[in-house]
Amino acid sequence: MVTLAEVAQHAGVSSSTVSYVLSGKRSISTTTRQRVEESIRKLGYHPNAGARALASSRSNIIALMVPLRTDMYVPVMMEIAVAVAAGARAHGYDILLLTGEEGPDAVRRVTGSGLADAMILMDVELDDERLPLLRGTQQPSVLIGLPADTEGLTCVDLDFRATGALCVEHLAELGHRDIAVVGEAPAVYERHTGFAERTLDGLRTRARELGLRLLHRPCEGGYDATAATLARVFDERPETSGFVVQNESALEPLLALLRQQGRAVPEDVSVVAVCPEQVATQASVRVTSVAVPAQEMGRRAVEQLVGKLDGLGGDEVVLLAPELTVRASSGPAPVRP
Q1: 242: closest CA among 334, 162, 160?
Q2: pLDDT digits (tens, 9 = 90+) for 78-89
Q3: pTM score > 0.85 for this model?
Q4: Which one, of 114, 138, 143, lies nearest residue 126 by Cα?
Q5: Which string of DSSP letters, residue by residue, matches 252-267?
Q6: Sequence-separated (6 or more) residues with CB below 8 Å from residue 34
Q7: What CATH number has the domain bearing residue 115?
Q8: Given its phi and psi angles, is residue 208 left (phi above 0), alpha (psi -120 to 50 degrees) or beta?
Q9: Does 100 share its domain with 210?
Q10: Residues 172 and 277 both lie in one domain
Q11: Domain hosting residue 29, numbered range
């Protein structure tokens, strides 16, 4: 393991100068600071969390609240969590992972005990019960997600409203006029989870503007639930030729069911998904999709939080622009006789 003394020797400065660069407790010239930072990068030095805590009266721990619910796609949540952990370690912080569905109680436990210096919260609802507590504490926090009211909060998220609009625009450009949305599990909407509600708002608003008919049906995911949802869609809207899927566990069952019904993708039906890149590319048909940038969301959240811990950042909403990648699952709408 690289030591602080080795960094000092490599940079040609004293150990105390390296310490001041890391802590920011004294003013260091720009040239010297840059030389020290370059040595830190080249040598791969990571500050010792315990030593930093003793020097700064901090725990050097970030609490990450990520409720693991059965109705959520856990791999995406954990990919974000891993990105947060990696980003935190790069800044000399460890992660305290809180996976229970405790809501405000978990926030009170962290703020009242000194367990962590700051918090990152995931699975954000539009009217999240944790928000009044966050606004009432001096402890820095960042949300990965967007509530209805962002005043006094720092948030990082994919722009899900723009994501929904982008999916509709793509299908409209291909000539599809009847679009069905296979959504998340009903409980996700009952909780008014931010990403799902905002995507649906973007879908509906853009469809209305373009004069398209849009049908939204929540789905538990899995083969049986997806089969029931698909049957309901075609029963209610037989002319449906475009699907938007925001439910990773329903995507492959949907493709299989369409094949079984003799509906070719994309000749008869086009499918667009909001999902991780690997889910779209590893499906039985490579799916046109808007990727969920899990790693970027985790990295940005840590950067925002570390800035607040260092007294450099204020409240800010960071929305990542969606990017749609066209693959084999979307094509021109079929010509109706």
Answers
A1: 334
A2: 999 999 999 999
A3: no
A4: 143
A5: HHHHHHHHHTT--TTT
A6: none
A7: 3.40.50.2300
A8: alpha
A9: no
A10: yes
A11: 4-45
